[in-house]
Automatic annotation (TrEMBL):
PANTHER family: GLYCERALDEHYDE 3-PHOSPHATE DEHYDROGENASE NAD(P) BINDING DOMAIN-CONTAINING PROTEIN, GLYCERALDEHYDE-3-PHOSPHATE DEHYDROGENASE. InterPro entries: GlycerAld/Erythrose_P_DH, GlycerAld_3-P_DH_AS, GlycerAld_3-P_DH_cat, GlycerAld_3-P_DH_NAD(P)-bd, NAD(P)-bd_dom_sf. This is Glyceraldehyde-3-phosphate dehydrogenase. The keyword Oxidoreductase applies. GO terms for molecular function: NAD binding; oxidoreductase activity, acting on the aldehyde or oxo group of donors, NAD or NADP as acceptor.
C-alpha cells in the first residue's frame, strides 16, 4: 500500500466519524455546521474531505480533519441552541489563539448559544410567478426549511396555461437543464392542486389578479410574497399584493423604481425597517458587484470606474431573429453576442450612496444559459499592488461578514460552468486581477440565477426574523 493510499484511507476513516456527529447536532440542537462557509448537510465522507481541501485555496494549507473532528466531539455535548457554526473558522481561530484548552475556547466562542435550546421563528412565503428565479427560490426554500425549519414555502401563484398545467409546473421543478435534478422527490396532489416537494406541500393557486387572492383560505397568513414576474416594479403595482388577504410584506426580485429600497444582502439589509412593506432585491449583477466594490472602496477609495458585464442570455431575448421592443435583443440569443444596456452600475449607488455618479456600465449578452462575469475597471485614490489586493480579497472571502457574498478563487482552469450552483453573490478570479498604479481591474464571476436567488432568500429570512445566527462572529472587512 502506498503512502498516498494509506493517507487517503485514514482521511476517510476520520470523515466517517464526523458524519453521525453532524447529524446529531442537526437533529437534537437544530445546529448546522460548515467549513469556511461550505455547508455540511446530508454529506458523505468524500464531501467532508472536499470541504476541508477547499481551505487550501484560502489559507494555503489543507484544514486537518482531526481538528474539526475534535471540535465536533465537544459540540455535541455542549447543549447548543439553534445556530450555524463554522468548524473551519473555529479551528482557524483556535490555532491562532493563546488558548490550549479547546473546550474552554469553544465555550467562550459560543457562549451566546449554549443552553438556549432550539429556537425557530416561522414565516409563510408565497412565490408569485414560477419562472427561472421562482423555481430556484422554491428549491432553496424547501432546502432551508429542512435545515432550519424557519421560512416555509406555502404556495405559488401562476396563470393557468393548460389543462395539464400542474403536471408541467411540477416537472419543471423536478428537472432543470442547467441546475440538474431536484434533490429529493416531487409528487402531485391533483385534487387539491398541491405539489409535494420533500414532504413540503406547495399550494398552486391560479390567478391573474394579485388583489383577489385570499391566502387565508389555504391557511396562509402574514405571508411574505416574493414577486418574481417582473411585471410590476413600482410601489403602486407591487402594492396590489398587499390588498390580498394574508399578505404582510412584498419582495421584488428585480430593481425597483421610485422610492423603493433596493437591498443587497450583506451591504444594506440593515436599512430594512419594520414598517417597510415593499422592498426589492435589486438585480443579479448589482448583487454580484456591490459587495466587491464596497470593500475595495472602503480600503482604497474608488475615484471612478466602469463595469462591463458579460451576461448569459435570458428569457426576454429571442431564440431566433424577431421583433423585440428592446434594441438588439430581438437578434438570436444563441448565435450572437448582444450589446445592451444595464442599470447595475447606477443601481450600486442605491446600496452604496458613496459611489453615486462614479460608475458607468454596459452589458454584453452571450450564448451561454447561466453564469455571468462582471469586469470592474476602477481608478482608485491610491496606488495598489496586485498581490496585496488579492490577499485582501482572499481574507475577506474567508473571515469577513461578507463571506457569503464574496468568494475568491485562484485556479488556472476555471470557466463559467464551474460556478453553476454557487450560493455566493460573486466570485473574484484572483488570477485575472490586474493592478497598475491607481488602475485596478477585477473579474467577478456570478451565477446570475442561483447565486442571486440565494441572496433573495437571505433577504426573505431577514424580513421574517428567521436568519440563523452564525458563529463564530465574522469580522468586518476593514479589520482584515
Amino acid at each position: 500500500m502506498t503512502n498516498n493510499h494509506k493517507d487517503w484511507n485514514e482521511r476517510i476513516a476520520v470523515a466517517e466519524q464526523m458524519v453521525p456527529l453532524i447529524g446529531r447536532l442537526h437533529r437534537n440542537n437544530n445546529v448546522v455546521v460548515s467549513v469556511f462557509g461550505r455547508l455540511l448537510v446530508n454529506v458523505s465522507d468524500i464531501d467532508i474531505i472536499k470541504s476541508h481541501r477547499y481551505a487550501r485555496h484560502i489559507t494555503s494549507k489543507e484544514l486537518p480533519l482531526e481538528d474539526t473532528l475534535a471540535i465536533l466531539r465537544e459540540l455535541v455535548d455542549m447543549n447548543l441552541g439553534t445556530a450555524s457554526i463554522d468548524l473551519g473558522q473555529l479551528a482557524y481561530n483556535f490555532e491562532n489563539s493563546d488558548s490550549t484548552d479547546l473546550r474552554a475556547f469553544l465555550e467562550d466562542s459560543l457562549a451566546d448559544v449554549i443552553g438556549t435550546g432550539p429556537t425557530t421563528k416561522h414565516a409563510d412565503v408565497v412565490l408569485y410567478g414560477f419562472g427561472r428565479i421562482g423555481r430556484l427560490l422554491a428549491r432553496i426554500l424547501v432546502s432551508r426549511e429542512a435545515l432550519y425549519d424557519g421560512v416555509r414555502l406555502r404556495a405559488i401563484v401562476v396563470r393557468k396555461n393548460s389543462e395539464d398545467d400542474l403536471v408541467k409546473r411540477a416537472s419543471l421543478l423536478r428537472r432543470d437543464s442547467v441546475h440538474g435534478a431536484f434533490d429529493g422527490t416531487i409528487t402531485i396532489d391533483h385534487e387539491n392542486n398541491i405539489i409535494w416537494a420533500n414532504g413540503t406541500p406547495i399550494q398552486v393557486i391560479y390567478s391573474n389578479d394579485p388583489t383577489t387572492v385570499d391566502y387565508t383560505e389555504y391557511g396562509i397568513d402574514n405571508a411574505i410574497v416574493v414577486d418574481n414576474t417582473g411585471r410590476w416594479r413600482d410601489r403602486e403595482g407591487l402594492g396590489q399584493h398587499l390588498q390580498a388577504k394574508g399578505v404582510s410584506k412584498v419582495v421584488l426580485t428585480a430593481p425597483g423604481k421610485g422610492d423603493l429600497k433596493n437591498i443587497v444582502y450583506g451591504i444594506n439589509h440593515s436599512d430594512i425597517a419594520e414598517d417597510d412593506t415593499i422592498i426589492t432585491a435589486a438585480s443579479c449583477t448589482t448583487n454580484a458587484i456591490t459587495p466587491v466594490l464596497k470593500v475595495i472602496n472602503d480600503r482604497y477609495g474608488v475615484e471612478f470606474g466602469h463595469v462591463e458585464t458579460v451576461h448569459s442570455f435570458t428569457n426576454d431575448q429571442n431564440l431566433i431573429d424577431n421583433f423585440h421592443k428592446g434594441s438588439r435583443r430581438g437578434r438570436a440569443a444563441g448565435l450572437n453576442m448582444v450589446l445592451t444596456e444595464t442599470g447595475a452600475a447606477k443601481a450600486v449607488a442605491k446600496a452604496l450612496p458613496e459611489l453615486a455618479g462614479k460608475l458607468t456600465g454596459n452589458a454584453i449578452r452571450v450564448p451561454t444559459p447561466d453564469v455571468s462575469m462582471a469586469v470592474l475597471n476602477l481608478t482608485l485614490n491610491q496606488e495598489v499592488d496586485r498581490e496585496e489586493v488579492n490577499d485582501f480579497l482572499r481574507r475577506v472571502s474567508l473571515h469577513s461578514n461578507l463571506r457569503q457574498q464574496i468568494d475568491w478563487i485562484k485556479s488556472p482552469e476555471v470557466v463559467s460552468t464551474d460556478f453553476v450552483g454557487t450560493t455566493h453573490a460573486g466570485i473574484v478570479d484572483g488570477l485575472a486581477t490586474i493592478a497598475t498604479g491607481r488602475h485596478l481591474v477585477l473579474y467577478v464571476w456570478y451565477d446570475n440565477e442561483f447565486g442571486y436567488s440565494s441572496q433573495v432568500v437571505r433577504i426573505v429570512e431577514e424580513i421574517a426574523g428567521a436568519r440563523p445566527k452564525v458563529y463564530p462572529e465574522r469580522a468586518l472587512p476593514v479589520a482584515l
